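Problem: given the chain below (264 residues), write out its structure.
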Amino acid sequence: MKAKVIKNIRVNDKYGYMIIESKELSSSSEAGKFFMLSPRINNITNSDPLINRAFAIADVFHNDTILFIYQIVGRVTTILTTVKEGDELNVVGALGTKFTICESKNVALVAGGVGIAPMIILGKKLRSQGNKVTLFYGGGSSKDILPLDILSGSYDNIEISTDDGSVGCKGLVTKLLLASNEKFDHIYTCGSTGMLSAVVKTVLSIDDGIDIEVSMEAKMGCGIGACLGCLIPTIDKNGTIANRRCCVEGPIFDGKTILFERLV
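Solution.
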């Protein structure tokens, strides 16, 4: 499906955000789901890049525009920075599973770097259901922390950490979680695989009864489960080990079922 680009802003040399317009795509957008997006624009047919890339839904505005946040790390995201307002992109979705939206609970969202993306719409959805929402947001430096105006309205409290101490507390985001005096009923997290593993271990050390949902990262080739390029090793309550497709059975998983030690 084609979607018109309304805005494309480069925040710094590491991150950018884009807003596209499509009532049809917006109607299927839910917290945790993603779209496969191609930077090939305006019906120009070529094979560069060959496949689309997955981008989490960051927010939806007025039921007709969708926000994406991207980290500039390779050719595809570098091409995205050149997209102009009024251009049309190829977009497929919404795909994947969604976060569980609990009600009237005390919840924490733990995000690292570009993992903040799905936490924005999730925070708003949770607050709309009477939850108290705290965001723990970490990054390597101040460049990894998005401007707070993008995050406004999604959280009751925001605590920030950076590895170099350039903004917020110095240290890993799990340090903030451990230092919190709050008793959380449910925790949601998105970030690098290493960060997700650390967050799950931290939560289990605090209280193994806390529900924890993770939004997993994986290289998705098709987005519909056909290529098997995004398998996530999991284990169920009976001890059965199975590889699950991040794009179909995920990207949202029960954090306690992920075999992080098997992920490269």
